[in-house]
Amino acid sequence: MTHKECIYQWTDSDKRLYFISLIPFLIAFVxxxxxxxxxxxxxxxxxxxxxxxxxxxQAGACVGCxxxxxxxxxxxxxxxxxVMSSIIYKNRTFERRFFNINANAASITCILxxxxxxxxxxxxxxYYVVGYLILVITYWFYFSSxxxxxxxxxxxxxxxxxxxxxxxx
Length: 169
Fold this sequence. Notes:
Largest sheet: none
Number of helices: 7
Strand content: under 5%
Shape: globular
Helix content: over 70%
Mean pLDDT: 88
Order of helices and strands: HHHHHHH
C-alpha cells in the first residue's frame, strides 16, 4: 500500500494513542530542557532551536503528504512541521529532490537534537542519561511499531521505511 493508492484514515483511538505515546518523549524533552536551563539558558535555547529547525525541515518533507495540514502522527511530536508545511508550502507539489533534502536535513537535525543534551545530562548525573535514553527508546519503539506501519506516507518517509524493515508490514 502506498499513500497514493489508499490513505489511512486516523481514528479517534489512533489520535488518543498518539497523544499518550508522546508522554515519554515529552518527559525526556521537557526534563532535558529544564536540566539544560539549570546549567545555561543558552544550552536550553540551542536545544529548543534544534527542535524548531528540525520542524522547519520536516515542513519541507511534508509536501505531498496526504496528512499535510491535518492530523499527523509525526515522530517526536513534529506536528509543528506539518502545520508549518500547510502554511509555507501550501501551493507546492511533491518533488523527490526537495523531499530528500528536507527529509535528510530533518533526520540529521532530529538526531542532533536527541544527542545534544546527553553530555550535560551526564554532568548532572548518569541516571539522567539512563532515564533519557529509556524514555526516548521506549517512545521510538512504540511509535514506529504502531503508527509508522499504518501511515500512508511511510513508503516515502525514511522513518517509515525503517519501521517497515524492522517491524514488517
